[in-house]
Specification:
Strand content: 15-25%
Number of helices: 5
Shape: elongated
Radius of gyration: 26 Å
Order of helices and strands: HHEEEEEHHH
Distance between the termini: 20 Å
Number of strands: 5
Length: 201
């Protein structure tokens, strides 16, 4: 096989492998059409509580001990005396409403008692909540995604005819194009191989 054909085949396969994980849906995506927390935004999420930082004190006896990021929620966990914890959970207001909110998030406060007994006051989370209010620009979430039609949310035929194709069609089209390109590359390699085997006249 000529080196040019080998390089073409390897390059196409590497591009295909790099593309597939990026298009895979997150396992914890609820599929409700609302935007989720995309991967790769860790630095942006940490900046939501600046100037507070991991391992640093947020109040007397309390420090920020953990930041967990899920598809639908961001949790800033503070640890205090006796192993008590207090968590500030940030979610999309349309998915999990709360009276306390910022431009982008609904804020939910959760506390857990440590060995000293008794729940810590939710006010220990005030510094984190204040930081989020200061740093949140109100544009954290991308635009909502269309929900795939199901047995309980299928629109009437007249309205379905006027709808544009859902955005979920785009990845399917890209997959088809990739498969077509892969098939073309394989066909090219087969033809090239047959030509190499053809005896000289």
């Amino acid at each position: 096989m000529p080196r040019a054909a080998q390089r073409l085949f390897v390059a196409f396969c590497l591009a295909l492998l790099a593309w597939l994980p990026a298009r895979a849906a997150r396992a914890d995506d609820p599929g409700d059409g609302l935007p989720i927390v995309a991967s790769g935004r860790e630095a942006e999420i940490q900046a939501l509580v600046a100037p507070l930082a991991m391992g640093k004190e947020i109040g007397p006896g309390w420090s920020l001990s953990d930041i967990t990021i899920g598809a639908t929620a961001i949790r800033f966990v503070a640890r205090g005396p006796g192993g008590a914890t207090a968590t500030l959970r940030l979610e999309n207001p349309e998915r999990a409403p709360s009276p306390e909110r910022t431009g982008s998030f609904s804020l939910h406060r959760e506390t857990s008692a440590g060995s000293a007994g008794g729940l810590p006051p939710q006010s220990v989370l005030d510094p984190l909540a204040a930081a989020v209010r200061t740093n949140d620009t109100g544009h954290f979430w991308p635009a909502p995604r269309p929900i795939a039609p199901g047995p309980h949310n299928v629109a009437p035929r007249s309205s379905r005819q006027a709808e544009t194709p859902p955005a979920r069609w785009e990845p399917t089209l890209r997959r088809k194009l990739l498969l077509a390109g892969l098939g073309a590359a394989l066909l090219y390699l087969v033809i090239d191989r047959l030509r190499a085997r053809r005896p000289a006249a």
